[in-house]
Specification:
alpha/beta, Carbamate kinase, eight-stranded mixed β-sheet, 21% strand, globular, binds adenosine-5'-diphosphate, binds N-acetyl-L-glutamyl 5-phosphate, amino-acid biosynthesis, transferase
């Protein structure tokens, strides 16, 4: 299978949902790719939006190693923000760009299996690839799945999954090419310069120095895991940068290339 024929798994981060122009540009890039016959799956976060909604509901946010501690009482707010508002806002932008899309979550169509990651984190999920049939059905129609990172475990419990980890699992599930789009141009070094290509050794060094931290640490870990698994680089780039989006449509490498060993 040629690279460009692999489904493209595009993960978009939270801040995008607060930027109407960013959403419009991204969807127009996605529409251009879909019109060329490229399958695209969009996986999204919405961390900023969750923060906002928790605060509005008088709840506090606590993170451990970049992951949100999610007690049971926060689940309705988190699910509402991610599987509800964020997912539907993106769907709206996709429809406006002429894309036929299916808004869904990790809990749909048995695409993944899920379990609680670690009791300390509360209702935070760890997911594993399971069955690609539902996604493949949508892609075969030429439609674009828009997937929120809410999973459901065997007991029917709703779990909050970090969206970079969700995108990594979807990429593995469909053997897709993963591009993690954030609000920064890629992984930056200690001087704020873009790192063109990043190996595991280099990333470990920068993480130890605290240069790569918070959300970027989780993102780079997810990218390294998929790069290793696929034997091909995973890109960390920016949805803000119109030039990067144009290059992505042309199939060019953008942002930081996170390399397999
Ligand atoms: N070395 C780094 N390079 C770039 N961003 C970094 C780095 N270390 C930490 N960050 C932070 O990580 C953020 C991106 O992660 P995150 O907020 O989880 O993004 P998203 O919501 O797009 O997934 C950046 O906005 C930046 O604040
Ligand atoms: C467990 C966990 O941390 N879940 C994330 C899910 C959303 C997310 O990952 O959003 P971004 O991609 O915008 O960072 C959260 O609650 O913020």
């Amino acid at each position: 299978m040629s690279l460009e024929k692999k489904p493209l798994v595009l993960k978009v981060g939270g801040a995008l949902l607060q930027c109407e122009m960013g959403m419009a540009r991204l969807m127009s890039a996605a529409a251009a790719m879909i019109n060329k016959g490229q399958s695209v799956i969009m996986v999204h976060g919405g961390g900023c939006f969750v923060d906002e909604q928790l605060t509005a509901n008088g709840m506090v946010t606590q993170k451990l190693d970049g992951l949100r501690v999610t007690p049971a009482e926060q689940i309705p707010v988190v699910v509402g923000a991610l599987a509800g508002t964020s997912n539907k806002l993106l769907q709206g932008a996709a429809v406006k760009a002429g894309i036929t899309c299916v808004g869904m979550s990790l809990g749909d169509g048995d695409i993944v299996t899920a379990k609680i990651k670690n009791e300390q984190l509360g209702f935070v999920g760890e997911v594993m690839p399971n069955d690609a049939a539902y996604l493949n059905f949508i892609l075969a129609k030429g439609w674009m799945p828009i997937v929120s990172s809410i999973a459901i475990d065997e007991l029917g419990q709703l779990l909050n999954v970090n969206a970079d980890q969700a995108a990594a699992v979807i990429a593995k599930l469909v053997n897709g090419q993963l591009v993690l789009l954030s609000d920064v141009s890629g992984v930056l070094d200690g001087k704020g310069q873009l790192i063109q290509s990043l190996s595991k050794t280099h990333s470990d060094e920068l993480t130890k120095l605290g240069v790569i931290d918070k959300g970027m640490k989780v993102k780079v870990e997810a990218a390294l895991e998929v790069a290793q698994w696929m034997g091909q680089p995973v890109q960390v780039a920016s949805w803000r940068d119109a030039e990067q989006l144009n290059a992505l449509v042309k199939g060019e490498a953008i942002g930081t290339q996170v390399l397999p060993d």
